[in-house]
Amino acid sequence: MSFAIRVRGVALITALLITALVGSVAASLSWDNALDVRRTMVMLYRDQAIQVAVGSEGWVRSILQDDLANSTSDHLGEIWATEIPGLPIDAEAVQGEIYGKIEDLQGRFNINNLLDANGEIDQPFFEQYERLLEALDLDVRLAGVTADWLDADQIERIPDGAEDPLYSGLTPAYRTANRPIASVTELAALDGMDRESFAILSPHVTALPERTPINVNTATVAVLQSLGPNIRQTDAEGLVSLREDGGFTDYAGVFAPLVEPALQQWISESTNFFQLKAVVQIDTVRISLFTVLYRDQGGSGVTMISRSLGTI
Ligand SMILES: [Ca+2]
Ligand SMILES: [Ca+2]
């Protein structure tokens, strides 16, 4: 082979190599570009979905306001309690779907009721909480552990307490709140609260910024049972069927013989605290917004108390 032919051969291979290299760089650039575009779109859709979900709060506020104007009690037959089926979002820039529901948070046991005005554990509510745990087949020891989490002191309740010495020995270490809780998700940090127990308990409890009565028109079976030591599950189920047609006509009369005397003033047929759960789907992006709303019975409107994205 002559020198000239060998040189031409090398030049050809070099040219082929360069073409292949440029090709692979171009492919990688266009792949990165496609990913960037997709990432930006997802961020944009997420922002839009959050805006739509927050916007739905205004709609819910007017539903709750209208309800207050038209009724003195709150029950599960009312408009606010109807689950909203998927509604299309059909604007020029956004297309998707929103669905949601409003829940009465006073149909649940308010964990912060455990603390009295002095920040100490209030025995009638503590016993009510124990009855709730019992009705749900959960470990009653959790009542003492929750009480220690909330009360201001560092003295472990006997036999069921847990204060900082226990939690600070865990990995990772943490400390008790020693104050009212802001979210029921705090309960997941309690000693002895496993995932299953939390899943069973969480639909029946709430954490509100003030002490609240139970709305017997919306309370769950287990929460109704917690109101007195002699309310069996079948009794509570009977009460639920009694209220089916627009709530109790005389709730005070029905519950007077059933409810623990100290809790008599802590039952009601109306509600101030509601929770909106809005789920918005745009393209492949789906977000859930949980908003706690306070409706003033005096008619001064509905205010947003807290918002949480993705979790209660
Ligand atoms: Ca009402
Ligand atoms: Ca404590």
Spell out the key features of this protein.
312 residues, Pantoate--beta-alanine Ligase, Chain: A,domain 2, Ribonucleotide Reductase Protein R1, domain 1, 2 domains, 5-stranded antiparallel β-sheet, binds calcium ion
The biggest sheet, with number of strands, parallel, antiparallel or mixed sense and barrel status, is: 5 strands, antiparallel
Kindly report the CATH topology of the largest domain.
Answer: Pantoate--beta-alanine Ligase, Chain: A,domain 2
Unreliable runs = none
- Strand adjacency order, main sheet: 1-2-7-8-9
Total helical segments: 8
Topology:
Elements: H1 3-70, E1 84-90, E2 95-104, E3 109-110, H2 123-135, H3 141-150, H4 164-167, H5 195-201, E4 205-206, E5 214-215, H6 221-226, H7 233-242, H8 251-255, E6 267-268, E7 273-282, E8 285-295, E9 302-309
Parallel strand pairs: 3-4, 5-6
Antiparallel strand pairs: 1-2, 2-7, 7-8, 8-9
Helix pairs in contact: 2-3
The chain binds calcium ion (2 copies).
Question: Mind explaining what this structure looks like?
Answer:
- The structure is a single chain.
- This protein is of the alpha/beta class and 312 residues long.
- It folds into 2 domains: 141 residues, Pantoate--beta-alanine Ligase, Chain: A,domain 2 (2-Layer Sandwich), CATH 3.30.1300; 100 residues, EpsJ-like (Ribonucleotide Reductase Protein R1, domain 1), CATH 1.10.40.60.
- The chain is built from 8 helices and 9 strands.
- A hairpin with a 2-residue loop joins strand 7 and strand 8.
- Helix 2 crosses helix 3.
- The protein is elongated, with a radius of gyration of 29 Å.
